[in-house]
Write a structure and sequence with these properties.
By secondary structure, the chain is α+β, with helices and mostly antiparallel strands. It has nine helices and 16 strands. About 20% of the residues lie in helices and about 25% in strands.
């Protein structure tokens, strides 16, 4: 017999839920710079410096003449408490595929499938956002202070002004402005870092600009034996470097060494490994231990508290909380190009 049907048709669900692509958050995971833990609200950072002066040998008693100068300087660094939090209203999922995995009973409206396939993405999203703020961002107060500085180039001021407003200052900002007591002029003001004027990077000029950065860095850094210098560059530079290396024409030169591929890929310039991060408008060359992230616990970045709301509310809260600050030491050995 004929089948008569009136009404809309329900399409079957595509089995796989296509998830967002999250940028790599390797600073805390791989510890590419100095990650220090165990601080709740602040930390004291110490720097030392010794200078000596040669003089003629003598058989007389040693006298105090200041030819060996020993300095130890402490700077207090305040950590900022930050959080990612919100409320989850699971009732919004009624009438969707996620309803199928809710347990029977009117009080039960938590979808096991939603938690496993969607809620689980909160942690990598936090990691991506935190990585971004570590390398690109400034507080409102710092933006105002940098804008009023005398002696800092307009290009660096513009770079800071264009950064997202953040709850804490990023590493490049600390390399331009900080209140370290170890600077030549202690206290809030321009950093003692080596600052180079650059230009907008393109595939055509990236090799020349990296040449300026390499040449402008202190020779102590380039020739260091106790540690290996690193170039810290924007993510987009990876593409520019590969285009530059594969440019068409008889005059093409291989300016960057690219070894391996995928997660094992290593790119270097004149023997200095390049670390790619979500930086904007600046490139840095220094020893990685001079760039610091101070934390209560690095695991806080991936810890999520998810629980029921109080007083019988059929909603859940989700919360991640951290204490964090960035810092730079040995500033005269940090080169930043803007």
């Amino acid at each position: 017999m004929a089948i008569n049907y009136a009404g809309g048709k329900k399409n079957p669900d595509l089995e796989e839920i296509q998830s967002e692509l999250y940028a790599d958050s390797k600073t805390l995971r791989d510890r590419v710079i100095d990650i220090q833990e165990g601080f709740k609200s602040g930390a004291d950072v110490y720097e030392s410096k010794v200078s000596v002066t040669m003089k003629a040998g003598s058989t007389d008693a040693v006298t105090a003449d200041g030819t060996i100068d020993l300095s130890a300087i402490k700077t207090g660094v305040a950590l900022k408490s930050i959080e990612y939090s919100d409320v989850i209203d699971d009732a919004v999922l009624f009438g969707t595929r996620f309803e199928k995995s809710m347990a029977k009973g009117a009080f039960n409206q938590v979808s096991d499938e939603f938690d496993k396939k969607v809620l689980i993405q909160v942690a990598p999203a936090i990691g991506e956002d935190l990585e971004s703020h570590l390398w690109n961002g400034a507080t409102t107060a710092t933006k105002s202070a940098v804008a009023a500085l005398t002696g800092l180039s307009a290009s660096f001021k513009a770079a800071v002004a264009a950064m997202p407003t953040s709850e804490f200052d990023s590493i490049p900002v600390r390399a331009l402005y900080n209140d370290s007591n170890s600077k030549t002029v202690a206290g809030a003001g321009i950093a003692d870092t080596v600052k180079l004027t650059g230009t907008t990077y393109t595939a055509a000029n990236i090799a020349a600009e990296y040449g300026k950065l390499y040449l402008g860095a202190p020779d102590k850094v380039i020739n260091a034996t106790s540690s290996e210098p690193r170039i810290f560059a924007p993510l987009a530079h990876r593409q520019l470097i590969k285009i530059a290396n594969n440019s068409v024409g008889a005059a093409s030169n291989i300016n960057f060494l690219v070894e391996g591929s995928g997660a094992n890929e290593v790119i270097s310039y004149n023997g200095v490994k390049i670390e790619f991060h979500p930086m904007v408008g600046v490139v840095m060359l220094t020893l990685p231990e001079y760039l610091k992230v101070l934390l209560d616990l690095s695991g806080d970045a991936s810890y999520l508290e998810v629980d029921k709301m109080a007083n019988g509310a059929q909603k859940r809260y989700i919360k991640n909380k951290q204490s964090i600050a960035t810092w730079v030491t040995n500033q005269r050995y940090i080169t930043i190009q803007g």
